[in-house]
Amino acid sequence: MKESIRIGIAHRHRMFIECLAQALAAEPDLEVIGTATSGHKILVLARQDIFDVLVLDPFLENKDGLDVTKEITSLKTSAKILIYLEKDNCNMAYRFLKAGASGCATASTGIADLVVGMRAIGGGAVYLPPLIQQEILEHCVHPNAKQNEDQLTDREFQVMRLIAEGNANGEISNKLFISIKTVDTHRSNLLRKLQLRNNADLARFAIGRGFVSV
Description:
The protein is an alpha/beta fold. Helix content is about 50%, strand content about 15%. It is built from ten helices and five strands; from the N terminus they run βαβαβαβαβαααααα. A five-stranded parallel beta sheet has the order 2-1-3-4-5, with helices on both faces. It starts with a strand and ends in a 5-residue tail after the last helix. The model has no long low-confidence stretch (mean pLDDT about 90).
């Protein structure tokens, strides 16, 4: 008998975890064996090499999803990461794929397609919803059509999201383990690259693009 694909779910909302786990219980080849609402906890579980596929929320508590993705990838465990996005966001998907994720799903994907994605990733393939796949292909074929956010480094992207969530420089410094001076440098680069004036503009930009949870 074929072994089940071991599933982990890391999401900031416990209800999401419980609903998804209940839906997956009907799938004989998928077994949910670990869940977490925080980035720190899912890293502890991931280090035990108990997952084949990890469904990961980019907006986890206490640790940025990009950092979680990079750390899990660096562990060289069996875990393959499937990012769960609230919107069809090509830039977010592309950024997480570069960080080491093996695919993504969105709120418009549906459980049936999410299961397809888990099986594909569990089997060593990459999974992307059709719309995200098309946008990423266009992104690669027409690199000159890049949007402003494509210019941002991962750290600038993280700082932008934290500013948009209302964090002060000191809070961002603590969350990303960087100095306040470095935070301010990233903020200055963000305003210049995005051609914005202040934190309020950054927040509107990030929320409008779906880069933060609202």
